[in-house]
Amino acid sequence: xxxxxxxxxxxxxxxxxxxxxxxxxxxxxxxxxxxxxxxxxxxxxxxxxxxxxxxxxxxxxxxxxxxxxxxxxxxxxxxxxxxxxxxxxxxxxxxxxxxxxxxxxxxxxxxxxxxxxxxxxxxxxxxxxxxxxxxxxxxxxxxxxxxxxxxxxxxxxxxxxxxxxxxxxxxxxxxxxxxxxxxxxxxxxxxxxxxxxxxxxxxxxxxxxxxxxxxxxxxxxxxxxxxxxxxxxxxxxxxxxxxxxxxxxxxxxxxxxxxxxxxxxxxxxxxxxxxxxx
Length: 278
Ligand code: ADP
Ligand code: MG
Hints:
The protein is α/β, with parallel strands linked by helices and 278 residues long. It has 2 domains: 23-103 and 195-278, Rossmann fold, CATH 3.40.50.300; 113-193, no CATH class. 34% of the residues lie in helices and 23% in strands. It has 10 helices and 10 strands. The chain has a 6-stranded mixed sheet, with helices on both faces. A hairpin with a 2-residue loop joins strand 1 and strand 2 (40-51). The termini are far apart. Mean pLDDT is 86; it is low at 1-21. It binds adenosine-5'-diphosphate (ADP) and magnesium ion (MG). Magnesium ion (MG) is lined by residues 66-67, 109.
């Protein structure tokens, strides 16, 4: 609530630690993570290392445990055993909120925009991961807060540019077609200034042209050095994107390699048997 002192709106450090966290080669480490729902071992003793700046795909048939694993990384789910590290720091006991502040952002499987807001305002919502202003400040609108509002708007607009939606900034979010809604969800997550972006089946239900545009956007973000973990069901989409694919089946990692390598893996073929998406 204090309205004095220097305004600091920088990228928050990934963790509040004296360590130079950017020196870590691994953006994210999943170590021996297990998560059960009743008798169902949704994720069972999974190890995954994600290199900084990489785009890692997590694939597997329905029910394989992909969303559960993503939830364990983002902190929306608590692991039963094992640990999750971000930039070398153990965040296993951190809340999802604290992990978001530290640089983990999620694009959820089903995201709805706030229909009453326009596209830019929807992107700006993501900025609240790093802004100072709370409800009381918003009421009194101190000068630093007006400055912050300008920065939020600029940053939100920049995030729309990154996903190619800047020309849609002022239209109602509810009027966007599905492909653009997904891009908006990515923009909103980017507005959090993430170090690691987690995406849960962002291409689901999209038409082929929309998938291509999404893939190009994600590759563009990779080009800017953003680490991404992409959960995907469709191997075709994955093949156009990933340098590395981790395959889950019944909660376990059954393959880990390039798209070409995992496609030829007999266990992967068996897991996908009967599925048209391999
Ligand atoms: P995927 O994303 O690969 O389709 P999920 O991680 O959603 O798979 O689910 C893995 C397994 O865990 C499934 O058997 C699913 O039914 C179960 N599961 C997931 N979430 C819950 C939950 N909240 N409560 C009970 N079971 C769940
Ligand atoms: Mg899922």
